[in-house]
Amino acid sequence: MSERSRALADAAVTALTARLDLAGQPAAPGPAELGALRWSARALTPGLAAIAAAAQRTGASSPGLREELGAIGRGAERAARQAGSAHRGALWVLGLLVAGTALDPGDPLAPAKALAAHPDRKAPRRPSQGSTVAARYGAAGARGEARAGFPHVRRALDALRAARDSGAAEPEARLDALLTIMSTVQDTGLLYAAGPHGLRRVQAGARAVLEAGGASSPAGRAELEAFGIALRERGLAPRGSPALLAGALFLDAPRYVSPRPGVTHHDRIDQG
Known about the structure:
globular, about 270 residues
């Protein structure tokens, strides 16, 4: 396995850990859960490195590569579950983005989108929460997000740039990026647990923080605190948005992705 494959995997796990450790995020995991999530995130490293190596070896977003990545991903999910948490949503996002970066560092979203468009014919044929919700409500879900080229990852990168340009500290810029995702994404986990009303409540709460000035403003911080309390009281825990933020933080690492027009990359992925 090449040094670059390992480096891409390390960058992806660093992005996931940075997302987990982001202070002030609404519905953050508790201390015990956070410890298990950190430990199991490290268990994804070999699988993500294998994904990068497979993409480098194949060199194109082919149906065969999609099936190979699916098999690797299922193995990585099992390893992470044994370590404490499967990180299924983050693994889907980061796996495709790692493969996309291995295929085209200058524009990783394009090959990631092409990979997501191919069916995984070897995947188990059993319904999931995401597929159930997609059928019931017409939500795009994680697969739809990837097949559309990760529009919410793009929005998060734009939000990071805008917050940094306005003088926000890195943790606040990342919180604004997370809230930007939460304000519009169709989180199928929330739809499954709380239905359309619960999803709309979360989207409205995220928008209220941003409209109050974001995480770097006093009014925005007050809205963010109230938003977090409301989520805990209602037992709502968005999981799709943090997974997409991890993807944005991975692409934000300048050592692995060439800057694209309209995107300003930060110096380090692990600040915050």
